[in-house]
TrEMBL record:
SUPFAM superfamilies: SpoIIaa-like. This is STAS domain-containing protein. Its main location: membrane. It is a multi-pass membrane protein. The lineage of its organism: Bacteria, Pseudomonadati, Pseudomonadota, Gammaproteobacteria, Lysobacterales. Residues 441-543 form the STAS domain. It comes from the Bacteria.
Amino acid sequence: MIAIVEAGRAGLLGPANWARNISAGVVVGVVALPLAMAFAIASGVKPEQGLYTAIIAGIAVSLFGGSRVQIAGPTGAFIVILAGVVAQFGIGGLLVATLMAGVILVAMGLARLGGVIRYIPDPVIVGFTAGIAVIIWVGQWQSFFGLPAPDAGPFYLETWRLLGSFAQLHWPTTLLGLGSLALALYGPRVPGLAKVPGPLLAMVAATVVTVVFELPGVATIESTFGAIPRSLPTFAVPSIGFDDVMLLLPSAFTIAMLGAIESLLSAVVADGMAGTRHDANQELVGQGIANIVSPLFGGIAATGAIARTATNIRNGGNAPIAGVVHALVLVLVLLVFAPWAGKVPLASLAAILFVVAWNMSEAPRFIRMVRRAPTADAVILLITFALTILTDLVVAVNIGVILAMLQFMRRMSASVEVVEHTQSSLRHELADAGMDSLPKDVLVYSIDGPFFFGSVDSLERALSWSRQPPRFVALRMERVPFIDATGLKRLESTIGSLRARGVQVLLNGANMAVLRKLVRAEVVSRDIPGSYFKDLSEALLYAEAQRVSNDDEAAASKVP
């Protein structure tokens, strides 16, 4: 379901639909302008590279993604991982890692792995997102307060050094940052400014103040990074060696996974707002194409942006036209207003990122989950959050997912029960077998739940009698949805040990998928009489027949 094709089928590309989408695209382009530059600077690259990314990725995802209202570009979620790649491998390494991430995303989409992303638990997503937000917030203190740059080191050491340097804060920069923060938050509430995006209002007002009053010591884009070029990006293939691929593969995979999570979350939000349905696999392909093309023109990693997508929908955007127009607006800014963009003070961009970090953190949701979620989920959330801050995002997500999987398996194994049935609970089965009572020396058990490696102990505990064992154990398997290799091995072992004690296990009632596995593992076989029965009634009749036969043989042996 390619976005541009789907929009054409829905009749959304006709002239009657242009006005609303052009209007939405213009608004989104205006919103994207300060964010694209702020995210680029925070990621350790030049501000124009953020604009290149928003232009190229915006067009690619709008045309080839799986949602016809998705808006893509650089986002705050990438800042931590991209800044780490730039610090270790330089901008060239970042371009290579982004291109590799694009290839991974395309492969994931073609392999139809779009639905797998939904299995990453909420505590992990909320935990690492909140951790990223804290890192972004602290990372902007230097620009917001005009502090000296701290020495490189772990995040907690940099934070400590920044706290120790607050006595050296630059007051003009700080006041400009506070004013920008106030405008970003409350500017749209001023009468007459309701339709002006807060980030744009903050950026423009801070730039005007900086230019008019020539504030001394206030860092701007131009004074820090040089003038923004008034030209479109040029095509250049980053040099890629085998050693580069091996070194950058972990970072590329992290970028791909983060991009997949962010874009699909954005698509889900868009579906809820616009009443549409996205194609998760095609969305991954579209994001992959964007991240392959973006570094070829000097751009960085991109993904679906929830805030910009929501802005698009709220302003009437319902087709890829809006995403393309948003990119063209940024092209116009790049070609016409680049000299003015160079005058933007870094303090105003830091203020914008403060707002982005707060929104990313979802602090109310974070607190609510810590207070109300099951204890294990709250612990996973806090561990993921702490590891994101104290180590890095890769470690945090990996450990968070592993802990969530272990917790899931613990809950699954705890939910599996091996129940011993009484005669009163088997009235219907006994009636079907034409019996008034349960045959002597027969015990009936049922396994309720998936029989996998985490739940096999429950069966062994149930069948470890301290009293004299019965002659027959009928094991009902109607409620076993699946069985894994460990379950098969332990079931075979249990049957063997019981047979050695003179107990015959009568398996019955398994569904076809489970039965095929039992046959393939030779737990059930035609060569093992009485190893399996269609249902409990047949098993009970077999046990009774065996008992009668054994009793007759015993009686005959006593005749002289």
